[in-house]
Design a protein that fits this description.
This protein is mainly α and about 200 residues long. It has a domain of about 120 residues. Helix content is about 70%, strand content about 0%. It has seven helices and no strands. α2 runs antiparallel to α6. The mean pLDDT is about 85.
């Protein structure tokens, strides 16, 4: 479980920042909150894995199928998260390529792509505007399944994540509708296909 947590956050922190063509500025309070969030989650999950949860083969016994299914859910959701994050990055990469070509033709400096937005259309983005959030929920639900229903830190992590990201997705959908119009957004939901 510790390795899965580390794999996710190696992608989410250094790799994600490195491969993003541009990122919006982050307020220091948001940055500090993110650091505190990860410190608390890391300590609670690490403490559970290191000693407060099952720590013998017998204690983990009888849960092999649940753990395997959880690992499959976690792995596929992580890959889906990569795909949907990259789809969002491609919007800015393609814009940057077009701007470079245009700037070369006109002999002008290249504009930044920090404030360029489009409605993503690939994968689950056909159904929801925040598919990457949905994939993250499934990823951490799989993680919780690996730890078992008694893994309070994994359950708390998932609940906290959903309670912070669902309101952001709902507010984000309102922004998309204001920016692009109801016609462009169509029947897409904010985060849960057919529901919300």
């Amino acid at each position: 479980m510790a390795a899965l947590y580390i794999i996710h956050y190696i992608y989410r922190a250094p790799i994600f920042a490195y491969v993003s063509p541009s990122m919006s500025p982050i307020h220091p309070l948001v940055f500090a909150s993110a650091c505190l969030w990860n410190l608390i989650n890391g300590l609670s999950i690490g403490g559970w894995v290191g000693g407060y949860g099952p720590n013998t083969r017998e204690a983990w016994g009888g849960r092999l199928y649940e753990m395997e299914i959880g690992l499959v859910i976690w792995g596929w959701s992580l890959l889906a998260n990569f795909f949907h994050d990259d789809d969002l990055r491609e919007i800015r990469r393609s814009t940057l390529r077009r701007q470079k070509e245009q700037a070369q033709k006109e002999g002008k400096p290249i504009e930044g792509v920090d404030k360029f937005y489009m409605v993503p259309k690939n994968g689950l983005f056909q159904y929801v505007l925040y598919a990457h959030y949905l994939c993250e929920f499934f990823e951490w639900a799989g993680f919780w399944m690996i730890g078992g229903l008694n893994c309070v830190p994994a359950r708390t992590f998932l609940i906290n994540e959903m309670s912070t990201m669902i309101p952001r997705a709902v507010a984000g959908k309102r922004w998309y509708v204001e920016k692009f119009g109801k016609e462009k957004i169509g029947k897409r939901k904010a985060i849960f296909p057919g529901l919300l």
